[in-house]
Amino acid sequence: MKPKNIVFIAQSLDGYISDKKGGIDWLHSTPNPENDDLGYLDLMNEIDAIVMGRNTFDVVCGFEGEWPYSKHLFVLSHSLNKVPKKCEGKVTILNGNVTAILEQIHNKGFLNLYIDGGQTIHNFLEADKIDELRMTTIPILLGGGVSLFNEMSIAMEFDHLSTTVYINQLVQSHYRRKR
User: Fold this and answer.
1) Which of 111, 131, 149, 158 could form a disulfide with 175 if both were Cys (CB 3.0 to 4.6 A apart)?
2) CA 24 to chain CA centroid, nearest Å
3) Residue 52 lies in a domain
4) pLDDT tens digit sequence for 68-121
5) Residue 46: pLDDT band by 50, 70, 90 thresholds?
6) What is the CATH number of the domain that holds 81?
C-alpha cells in the first residue's frame, strides 16, 4: 500500500487559514444547525495518523472538552519537550526534515496521514509530499492573517476530483497531485 498525505483544511474566500490575530473563530461564522461534519469523519476513517505543527497543536490544546482526535497525533516541533497531560500517550513529538519525519512515522506503521497547520502544509508541499488537497472555502473575507499558501520554489499541478457544497454555503474541493 502506497502512503498518502492529505491536507484537509478550511480557508477564507481570500485564502487565509487564521485571522490577523491568529484566531479561528470565523470557522464557525456559517450556521451549521445539523452539525454536518463536512467530510471530517470520512477523512478520519481514511487516515492512520495526524501530523501538525507546534502552533496548530497549541491551538488544539486550547480547545475545551475532550481530546478531539481518535487517531495518533505527531507534532512537529524543535522546542516542545513534553505534551500536556490530557494528550499523553496520544501524541508523539518529532523534528527534522519532512523526509526524515515521514520515514519515522511510516516505520511506526502509520501510512495515510492528515497534514495540518500552515507551516507544516507549506513544508510538505515544498518537499513535494502532499498527495491530496481537500480545501473548504468559507464565505468570509478576513482581509489578512495566515495564508494557506506561501511562495513555492516549484509549480505543482493537481487534478480536480470533486467539489461538494455543504450547508448551502461551504465549498469543498478535492484535488490529487499529478505525478
Assistant:
1) 158
2) 13
3) no
4) 899 999 999 999 989 988 888 999 999 999 999 999 999 999 999 999 999 999
5) very high
6) 3.40.430.10
Q: Tell me the C-alpha distance between 45 and 60, whole Å.
A: 20
- 165 phi and psi, to 5 degrees? -105, 125
Residue 82 in domain: yes
Contact 16, 144 (CB under 8 A): yes
List the domain range (segments joined by +) for residue 118: 4-29+62-177
Give the separation between CA 143 and CA 20, rounded to whole angstroms: 8
CB within 8 Å of 84: residues ≥ 6 apart: 61
Q: Which cell is 41 given? A: 469523519
* Alpha-carbon distances, residue 135 vs 72, 77, 130, 151 (angstroms): 22, 24, 13, 18
Q: What is the pTM of this model?
A: 0.94
Instruction: Give dist(CA 102, CA 119) in Å, integer.
Output: 16
Instruction: Assign 76 to helix, strand or coil.
Output: strand
Q: How far apart are CA 104 and CA 2, in angstroms?
A: 16
Q: What grid cell was written down for 104?
A: 519515522
In a domain, 157, yes or no: yes
